[in-house]
Structure formats: C-alpha cells, structure tokens
Design goal:
Shape: flat
Distance between the termini: 53 Å
Largest sheet: 2 strands, antiparallel
Helix content: 10-25%
Number of helices: 1
Order of helices and strands: EEEEH
Strand content: 5-15%
Radius of gyration: 18 Å
C-alpha cells in the first residue's frame, strides 16, 4: 500500500514546519538554537526544543498520574 506525501504512514498528515532561523530563537530551558517549529511563534510565550518539550509533556503526564485523576467511587 502506498501513502501520499502528506502522510507519515500512521494515518496522520505531517505538520507544516515554519523556518524561524531569522528570529534567533533559543529554547527557554536549555538554550539550544531553534530553527524550525510546527507553529508560528508569538513573542509572549516561551518556546522549547524538541527534547525539552518532550520532557515537559512527560512530566505533566506523570504529575497527573496518567489515570485521569478525579474522585471516582468516592463515598
């Protein structure tokens, strides 16, 4: 089965990447130069490199406990 160029094989279209080299952006955590982002950055929010962003997401998930939290079955 052949896939179109717009899909990565997982059934998801590839995200458009924006060249932000001219903006001189650096990761807010580690200071790595950022040259591409999957969104147009705004000046009022920090940006993170791929590795730091992955770690931030993992920390956020583990903080929540991964089960959705809540107070189910509480009497």
């Amino acid at each position: 089965m052949a896939y179109s160029d717009d899909f990565s094989g997982g059934g998801r279209p590839q995200r458009q990447m924006y060249d932000v080299t001219a903006m001189g952006l650096k990761c807010a955590t580690c200071g790595t130069d950022i040259t591409q982002l999957p969104f147009q950055p705004s000046s009022d929010r920090p940006v993170y490199c791929q590795e730091c962003n992955r770690q931030r997401r993992q920390n956020r998930t583990s903080f929540r406990g991964g089960s959705g939290g809540g107070s189910r079955n509480r009497y």
